[in-house]
Amino acid sequence: MTTKMMNGEAHETRTKRPPTDLELMMYVDGELEGERLREVRQALSRDSALRNKVAALSLSASIVRENAESAAAIDLTDGIMARIAADKSPTRDARDAAPALEAPSERKDAEVKPLLRPGLDKAAAKSTPSNDNSRGIFALAAVAVAAAAGLMIWGRMDVGTPHSQGAPVAAITTPAEPPAAPAPTTAEAARVADTDAQDGDTEPGVAVAAVDFGTKIGTIFYVPAEAATSNHTTTVVWLADDSAGGEQ
Amino acid sequence: MRLPLFALLVAAFGLSLGHVPSVAHAQDAAAAQADASVSMEIVVLHGTNDGTGIDSKIGKMPELAKPPFSSYNSYKLLDRSKQTSSKASPSTLKLPNDRVLQISLKDVVQPAKKGEPKRYVISASIQNPGGKTFLPLLEVNAKAGETFFVAGQNHKGGVLVIGIKVNP
Lengths: 248, 168
Known about the structure:
Keywords (chain A): Membrane, Transmembrane, Transmembrane helix
Helix content of chain B: 10-25%
Organism (chain A): Polyangium fumosum
Oligomer: heterodimer
Structural class of chain A: mainly alpha
InterPro entries (chain A): Anti-sigma_E_RseA_N_sf
Radius of gyration of chain B: 24 Å
GO molecular function, one term (chain A): sigma factor antagonist activity
Mean pLDDT of chain A: 64
Structural class of chain B: alpha+beta
Low-confidence stretches of chain A: 1-14, 100-106, 116-128, 158-200, 243-248
Protein name (chain A): Anti-sigma factor
Largest sheet of chain B: 4 strands, antiparallel
């Protein structure tokens, strides 16, 4: 489309833009035509960089074409048939003998065609089964189920009870002299059960998790409770102003 | 094939949503722990060898007849108070020797088995009046209802015995 300007010159409203790489490739392949072909030619005549690019594209296109032709020239059919004919092992002869009796005579002349042509195997593999989509869907479904399972496990985790397990635990928390704990007899069991149910046998009612006596030396005692049959102890931290002591 | 996939994704999302309340519950529990507090009963005893025996006001405390408390034959109740401590606000108690006992709740540990009492992680320290620390740190993991003692400070010819009981 042209418009008449005040000075009487015709001016093209369409701006000339430099050719894109795609257009250069189309140009090399001979697929560009019309006005754009003319513009690209003009651009090539002006710009040496574009000419170099076109030369490189032409070279690569010629290399691809040569390789494609040489690959297409390879015919595996003859090679495969030659291998089959050479395989005259007894097993194969016995295997082939039975169906040969029932096979119609015209099958002897049946033409054997390769399933995949060289160079086209990838394309053929892609175009063969339509269940590639279903594979992807199954994979997505598996991911979704795995995510749900992970969330379920995470939801069941006890994340709300952080405690001081990470805190430094002094070695002195274990009583050096644990109170004697004779096994309760059957008669005593009922009486001891109440105490043990509350106190537990494995850990003291009060365990020292961390202690810093500063420059002094302190002592931690686990004093047995009144009932000798119970493991219950009372924790005593003894720190005198001028004492010297040790772990007991 | 797109519809079953969509249905699967929706089902998976629904399954995950079904467990969101447990996560929310955990967050609520964490928030509850953040403002948890513990009530403690603190007794201050004076142990001497003046032969007066154990003060009846102390109540039942059989430990006093056993070592190391048995080094003193007499115990007198100096103070009995109740304190409430939380993570945000530690409690303090001025001792008869002018030192200050500070107790703070560090953590509340839920019982591993149902029916067991909670455990409280409690931090204690004793400061001298001048600012110097007598006992820099004592951190205990105490079962509710249990008493522990901090003893040994010299006081008027004897020792101070501080008993701290964590109330359930």
